[in-house]
Amino acid sequence: MKYTRNAHKKMEQNTVSARVTLNEYTNKVLGVLKAKYGLKDKSEAINKFIEIYGEDVVENEASDEYLKKVIEITDRHMKKYGKRKMSLVELDRLTE
Description:
64% helix, elongated, mainly alpha
């Protein structure tokens, strides 16, 4: 799942203050991110970095809207097809 604006808004609402000690390289990377994206401070740069790379480590939680949509699609599929199985010929036709 890609990072959504709703998830970003949710993150902004639940903020945590932290005092951090940065090594020189980390400070440089945050400075570059800050300049590249026109951010106010290094706190925003850290948040931007996490927005870009955080999903590689921790998956975002699915929003209620997304879950409702998946359930709706699944229900429509089950009503249309039930527990019908696909033959190998049908699968080959679809994947060729």
